[in-house]
Write a structure and sequence with these properties.
Length: 259
């Protein structure tokens, strides 16, 4: 088994970080840079930063701010939100992002995934899928920060994204987001069974046992979380200790400082 990753998620809205429930991110949790500096010291494996308003407002990704954030981030740094074309991907990578997360734009223009993977390598492209569970038990993908139904099934969409060259899949349960009641294991498993790629589970982590379940029971290669780290005393370093104690191989922490 490959070493799993623990990845804090930072939701960026109007110059600050926010968090809420079910993609209704209204609660402010502080500025971006101090959070990045703290996570540099917390044994995180990567960071994911998503501008949650850029796509809905048809705004350009803020490459200048990403440059400032990347200068202070000493772990692999994934950036998403508002990306609609190759030129924007190029600007963000030049600004210091290590990976790019594509979500809404991939539905509108699936060839963007092909083009980005061909030009920059699959390792740079994280295909992000946000899904809801309907009353009949079926899942549906949603775009534009969970506001627009796409008619796509997460497993089918994940297969297509993998075929187009994505390097990994980030699967988020909109229903579980911010609830801290646990990942939607059935959703995670349907995606891990569909693709032969690393899958990052997101949405619902409330304790270390939830993380273990996503990995050992649902097949995730990494766990992303926000509320657990913002609003409780639980930390990424302790999460990795708990996972290691459960027999899950984890990565050693990064030193706090540039290589």
């Amino acid at each position: 088994m490959l070493k799993v990753r623990v990845i804090p998620t930072l939701l960026w809205k109007n110059f600050g970080l926010v968090k809420g429930v079910g993609f209704d991110s209204w609660r402010r949790v502080g500025p971006v840079l101090p959070a990045i500096k703290v996570y540099n010291t917390r044994d995180v494996d990567e960071l994911i930063l998503v501008d949650i308003t850029a796509t809905r407002e048809a705004a350009e990704p803020d490459a200048e701010s990403v440059h400032d954030f990347a200068d202070e981030c000493f772990v692999p740094f994934t950036v998403g939100g508002g990306i609609a074309g190759i030129e924007q991907i190029q600007r963000l990578l030049r600004a210091g992002a290590d990976k790019i997360s594509l979500n809404s734009a991939a539905y509108a223009n699936p060839r963007l995934v092909d083009d980005a993977a061909r030009r920059y390598g699959a390792q740079c492209i994280v295909a992000s899928i946000d899904a809801r569970r309907h009353a009949d038990g079926n899942y549906e993908c949603f775009s534009h920060a969970g506001t627009q139904a796409t008619g796509r099934r997460p497993d089918d969409w994940a297969r297509e994204l993998a075929d187009r060259g994505a390097g990994e899949i980030l699967i988020t349960s909109i229903d579980r987001d911010g609830t801290m009641t646990g990942y939607d294991l059935a959703l995670v498993e349907c995606v891990t069974r569909a693709v032969n790629l690393p899958v990052i589970a997101s949405g619902g982590a409330g304790n270390y046992e939830h993380m273990r379940q996503a990995i050992q029971d649902a097949g995730a290669s990494a766990v992303a979380a926000a509320s657990i780290f913002h609003f409780t005393e639980q930390t990424p370093a302790e999460a990795k200790k708990a996972l290691a104690a459960a027999g899950i191989p984890v990565r050693p922490g990064y030193a706090a400082g540039p290589a």
